[in-house]
Amino acid sequence: MIITKPKKLDDILGHINGRPVFIVGCSECATLCHTGGEDEVSSMKDALKNKNIDVTGWVVLEPACHLQNDKRLLKSHKKEVDKAEKILVLACGNGVQTVSEVLKDFNVISGTDTLFLGEIKHASEFEKRCIMCGDCLLDLFEGFCPVSRCPKSMLNGPCGGSKNGKCEVDLDMDCVWDAIYKFLKEKGRLHQLEEIRKPKDWSRSIDMRRIL
Amino acid sequence: MRHRSNLERILLDKGFAVTAEIGPPKGSDPDTIRQKGDMLGGYADAFNITDNQTAVVRMSSMAGCCILLNMKLEPIMQMACRDKNRIALQSDLLGAAAIGIRNILCITGDHQSSGNHPSAKGVYDIDSIQLIQIIKNMRDDGIFQSGDAILSGRPDVFIGATANPFADPYEFMVDRLEKKIRAGANFIQTQSVFNVDKFELWMDEVRSRGLDKEVHILAGVTPLKSLKMTERMKFHVPGVDVPDKIFDRMKTAKDQKEEGYRIALELIDRIKRVKGIHGLHITALFWEDIIPSLIEGSGLLTRS
């Protein structure tokens, strides 16, 4: 799932600059992240009204990254949209861009920061699992991804900063290499780490801009 | 015996080598490197110039090495993977070899979050092991990482790498050393050793696999300058193991500098007798003026 977190209300207010707003949410990832579901859209509406901002209406798109659905749903809210100057989108960076594509004459504002492709561990706890590099190496590392989960993307074992299973960058973060090592040790397959992994082919992440 | 650098010559002759780290300045003044070079020339066989260590911006390693070369001192150019992709790293290597740098130390690099530009984008296109292999292939086979051929002049360098006997998972650290050797490392400079017992265990495993015969291992030594620095090393620098005993000695010392110096002498005395160790790498962390008396005090001035 695409993990997002809300931007600060003050930052959003700075972009809105007192103008009338139409709020857009998303039925998928942003709903599960509690950043852009119906509840969050409703709270945002109240928060803006408290600041004397005119909220002309709202919609939760299904989902915001779906161009054809966006066209259809936003058309059904044309009246409220047309009364607004600003469109506040509570969805991921993709959702914001798709809405911008549909509502070309409006100033579209992002209400969230998009963080990563991650796992839902608990209701409000998410962990990075993938950076969509286009060249998946998970088969080499037993389902653990050091490209996305190691801050240095090490492919040949942990750096010298791994201590007690934690990462030098953030002591609350598990060292993915420690996890890989322990997993392979338990399975008796540590020899898999002997091979020197070649530099990654990053051209795959650049070529794959469009799939038909 | 054919050698690429003075450091390699000493190690091939089975001598005991001493290298020392010179931290370049946070500024463009070349005299800070010249002064350290003047002070340390004759006390060490080669000098590491760090590459923006701890992710703090300093004068570039290649420029620092160039200043040392002009003083007829031998540099070891450190290359970190944090700030440059494979194109920049290979280009730097060609440039370094062109101006006469003959020793390279390959490191992945401290993460940018710990430095003075925490909002920087880290590169990490390749890791240190891949960098070692790329340099070896450029040197021995005349090919770039892409497979493209080097057209005029292979970089004839002595390739170094680091090893940390104190990092976790502890059991993997000798495997990782072995990987660096297979990638092409000719010499190793270890993390600063304070816990000699643990270091000896690591070296036992290194020798049992015969790795001390395949690579020259220089053990890291860092003199502790103050209690504050000891605290930082013990609690905040990733991958350093300062035993409580040493910490307590620094804590109760009347003269912390003197105590730190004495501890360093004791460490050197034990470490230099560990079987399979071919030299020392002294990292004095901006206390470089202690190095001459450390070398004299430990009887290493007249080493062969």
At a glance:
The complex is a heterodimer of chains A (212) and B (304). Chain A has 212 residues and is of the alpha/beta class. Chain A has helices spanning 9-16, 29-32, 38-50, 67-75, 78-83, 93-102, 146-149, 176-187, 203-207, and strands at residues 2-6, 21-26, 55-61, 86-89, 107-110, 112-122, 125-130.
What is the β-strand count of chain A?
A: 7
Which residue ranges of chain B are poorly predicted, with pLDDT under 50 across at least 5 consecutive positions? none
Strand content range of chain A: 15-25%
Largest sheet of chain B: 8 strands, parallel, barrel
Instruction: Give the class-level CATH name of chain B.
Output: Alpha Beta
CATH topology of the largest domain in chain A: Rossmann fold
Low-confidence stretches of chain A: none
Give the helix/strand class of chain B.
Answer: alpha/beta
What spatial form of chain B do the alpha-carbon principal axes imply?
Answer: globular
Proportion of residues in helical segments of chain B:
25-40%
Give the count of helical stretches of chain A. Answer: 9
Radius of gyration of chain B over all CA atoms, rounded? 18 Å
* End-to-end distance of chain A: 22 Å
Q: Reading side by side through the largest sheet of chain A, how are the strands ordered?
A: 3-2-4-5
CATH top level assignment of the largest domain in chain A: Alpha Beta
The major β-sheet of chain A equals:
4 strands, parallel
Please report the number of helical segments of chain B.
11
Spatial strand sequence of the major β-sheet of chain B: 1-2-3-4-5-6-7-8
Listing every helix as H and every strand as E from the N terminus to the C terminus, the arrangement of chain B reads HEHEHEHEHEHEHEHHHEH
Average residue pLDDT of chain B:
96
Quaternary status:
heterodimer
